[in-house]
Structure formats: C-alpha cells, structure tokens
Structure prediction request, 459 residues.
Amino acid sequence: MKKLPLMSSRRTFLKRSALFASFSILPSHFVFGQKSSGGQLPPSQRVNLAAIGIGNQGRGDLSNLYASGHCNVVALCDVDLKGKHTQESQANHPNARRFTDFRVMFDQMADEIDAVLIAIPDHAHFCVAMLAMSLGKHVYVEKPLAHTFGQCERLIDLAERSGVVTQMGNQGHSGANYFQFKSWTEAGVIKDVNRISAFMNKDRRWHGWGASVEKYPNQPLPEGMDWDTWHCSGPVHPFSDKLHPQEWRSWYDYGSGAFGDWGPHILDTAHRFLELGLPRRITALKRDGANDLVFPQASTIQFQFAKRKAMPACTVTWYDGKENLPKVEDDLGELNISKPGKIIYGKDLTFAGGSHSDALRVVPQKKFMEVRETLPRIAGKNSNHYANYLLACKGEEESRSPFHVSGELTQVFNLGVIAQRLGGTIKFNPKTRRITNNKTGNALLDPAPRKGWEEYYKM
Prediction:
C-alpha cells in the first residue's frame, strides 16, 4: 500500500540523527549534543507533542510522557478547558497553545506537531487518530483502541499506509509481564493453553444505578464546554454529569464497560503471544441487570478461539461485577482473586497473574518449587510504555503495542461488548469479518457515523 507523506521535516531530522548515531562509537549525546548539563535532551532533539484530552487519564499520560525527557509539549486540546480536571495540565505547560477542537489545532499548527497523545472517551478515539495519522503524526491512543470493530479495521489500515508510529495505552505491555510471557512462550514453558479465566470484580461507576436507567439525563451545559466536538462521530445526547467528565464509560454509545477498560491490561499478553486472533463464538453466560443503554451490573462472557498452528483451541472466559468470580480448582491452592487478574491453564503447568505488568507465577506453590530452576530468567532494563512510544517516534525503538497488535486485541473486546449488549450466542466468521447469526449484532460491528463526520471513515 502507498504510504502517506510525513508532513514534518523536523521528524525526518530526528530519525536521521538517531540512525546516524547508531553507527557511532561514541554515545549519541556526545555526537549531537543531545543532553544538556542537567541530563535533559535539548528541545531540538525532543518530539513535539500535542495532547488531546488533558484531564484524569490524559493528565497522567501527559505527565508520564513529559517526565521521560523525550518530548516538548506544544499544544493542549480539551473540550472542557474550564473544567477542574484540566487545570493541572494547563498549569504544568503554560507555554503550550490551547484548543477545544482538535480540528482547529491541526489546521493552525500541524507543521509544529510530531506526535499526538489521544486520551479522550472511547467513542472519540477514532476520528482524532485518523486525522492525526492522515497528517503524518505519530499517535498514542488510550485503550481500548476504538469503540467499534469497523473503526479498529480502519485504524489498522491507515497506520500501515501512513507509516507512522502507533501505540495503544495498555501500559503493562511494556512491563514485566510482557517480557516474561514472551520469554516463557518462546522457551516452551507456557504451552498448549486451552483455557483462560480473566476477571475484574472492582466496583464500577454504573453499579447501583445502571440497571434502572431508561433515558439519558439532561443538565445545564457548563460554560465553555464544546459538547458537539465531545460527541465526534457518535450519537448526540444531552449533557449530564452521568457522561462527563468520567461517567461516559458506563454507556454503550460511548464506552466499553469493564471489559474494554480492563481487558487490555489483563488479556493483552495472552492474546498476543498465544496468537489467539479473533474468536468464532462469543456467549453471554451472565448479564445481571441488563439494560439497553448501560452496561450490566455483572457479566460473564465466554469466547471460543480456534486451533492455531500447533496450538490447541482455547476458551477464554471473562468475569466482571462485584463478587462475580471464576471457580478455582482446589488443587491450585489458595489464589487471591479479589483483585483483577487471570488464570492460564496449560497442558503441563497452570499460571496465575494480575493485571498490567504483574508477572505470572506457576501454581500451586508445590509445582512451582518443582520447576523453578528450569524457568527462564528475565534480565535487563527496558523503557517504559511512554518512553518506548517517544523513542519509537525518534526511530530508536519499535513500539510494543502498535495498532496491528492492539487493534485486533481491541476487536475481541468490541465483540464481547456486543454479546454483553444483546445476550445469547454470537457466531463470528474471522475471514469475512461478519457476525453470521444476528443482524443486529452484525450492524453493531460498524455503525454509520453521524452526519458531518463521514470523511473520517474514508481516509
């Protein structure tokens, strides 16, 4: 596929500098003066970053990206610049230009931006990321990657055509669990996995009120709030504090529930290194407090993945909701399943782990003691997820959660959400990318955008 041109000559300079430095005997900061006396890269050798969504999760992401020392923050964009949750980011970066509409930001200063952080509600990821990539900008997009299966398809495609660096914000994918799972799979320690239980039993925002919701509430719009841009290509509903600034995750129209929120931190390494791909069957085994608008109070969703190469078929069962936990076999010993995590059942060994970067352990303890001397040791220090993204923008590393990896992972969650929403069993054909037994479910794979936002689906 033909690659889109990169718009910034400055980015080309950064990549060429990194490439030239890799052939030098001396460290690159001696060759190019990349570090000041204080140990920080000078502005000319940092990535120019624009942050879209600067409160709550965006605030944390921006802080971590800036703390890496590899970026200049040149623009801040948020639909609610007067909101309390956005004030800290604005105070921390007083010289960054401010915008409420990402389209205006790109119109006015695209040539000054190398990379973009996108940390806004799930339903809005797609349009912003598509525009940024079409302009040749590297993109870091919070998880889950997009709100629908079809949006993920387009993001994966444009990422390949544009040639930009992409990263999804499942931060544990640069942590201990990533390197351990990769190493243990390659060494044959994790093998012949035929069953995985994954669970997240923390209280969610919609617990206690979601089951009774019959319509979207309506409250006065805060001063300065760009409510139309907040919706992007999604359906429009009145403003309320049950949507903004954080409650949007509760609603099918805008969020991805507990599964889309926590699945990327729990199932990411299993999906990648076991090469699970896309499921053939998804069944909603439990939907407590099912509602047409808001996610269930508790749900159990089961996925059937086909045999892959030499790996057996695998069943993955997801549990969310307070006290909705998998049954744990007595012979595994006492496992702490009161916090998010997973149990991975292989032919010879069983593994228990948490979320994010938490490492796996062989269970029960007796079995671990038998095999501990044969387990590969994981050595070395690696960049964290934020530094990895920026170093990849500079051509010095490869991003660990690029869209061709994180996009397919997100599509598993997209399918799971459809099952949560409709109930019953969904049959999916991975080759045709269609749900074959439910017309409503098939339509939810790729809903049409609202009028005026069609262009982002054609980039």
Remarks:
- The chain has a mean pLDDT of 92.
- The CA atoms of residues 207 and 385 lie 31 Å apart.
- The chain has two domains: 9-172+387-402, 174-380+409-457.
